[in-house]
Amino acid sequence: MINANFVFLGIAVSLTGGGSYIRDTLRGLTSPNRVTWSLWALEGLLGFVVERQEHVGLASVMTLFLGLVPLAVVLASFRNTRSYWRIGRFDAICGVVSLLGILCWSLSSRPTLALVAFVAADSLAGLPTLRKALLSPSSESAWAFYAGAINGGVTLLTLRHFTTAGGLFPSAIVLMDSAIGTAVLTRIGPRLRRTPTPVGVR
After folding, report:
1. 3-state DSSP call for residue 86?
2. I need a surface site. Which of 27, 119, 170, 202 has the fewest CB within 10 A?
């Protein structure tokens, strides 16, 4: 465990990544998937409320910024119309299921159980961007996601005791953001789609 104040270092890293993503969005270099980022904004803010109810402490500040930064990304995407990513059927399905998870959160009287459903919804919200990173890595920025993963990792290290309320959401963020960032950085999607040239064919 590290000092709880290190959570602010994680937030600073996340803000750096988020700021670069917003800048790239305004310049038309990045095309955020609005389904993912809108749901991340909503879920991050709701997750902050749940964690405060569970008395998570400083770690909940990370969750708050995981809502505010995506909100800024969504607003930036409307500022530059070239930054718009076309929403498909897969995106819509993930969005609807994610919203159902949020509904379960709102109807549950047990905060921890609600948080589990909520984190599942948050992960589903990330799937459209993960798919997008595999299909078109040039439309994404890896650093923003790695910064989010670092933020989540630092938050986990500040926990005195690993509990569902305190550790589940940061753990999910680390896994999803790392997966997206790696898909963008390695461009593994286009590489896997390349069809090998048959022997004897030129």
Report:
1. coil
2. 202
Residues 6+ apart with CB under 8 A from 170: 59, 62, 63, 152, 153, 155, 156
**pTM of the shown model:** 0.85
Q: Among 45, 67, 62, 53, which Cα is nearest to 111's?
A: 53
Report whether 50 contacts 114 (CB < 8 A).
Answer: yes
Query: Which pLDDT tens digit goes with each residue over 101-140?
Result: 888 878 877 777 777 888 899 899 999 999 999 999 999 9
What SS3 class is residue 85?
coil
More confident of the two residues 200 and 113:
113
| Residue 29 burial (C-beta neighbours within 10 Å; 0-12, 13-18, 19+) | middle
Query: Where is pLDDT greater, at 64 or 92?
Result: 92
Residue whose entry in the numeric block shows the structure tokens 């999910």: 172
Where does the chain have alpha helices with state H? Answer: 7-26, 34-53, 59-79, 89-107, 111-135, 142-158, 164-186, 188-193
**Amino acid at position 56, single letter:** V
Look up tokens 């986990």; give the residue: 156
**Tens digit of pLDDT for each residue in 140-169?**
999 999 998 998 888 888 887 777 777 888
| Contact between residue 38 and residue 70 where contact means Cβ atoms under 8 Å apart | yes
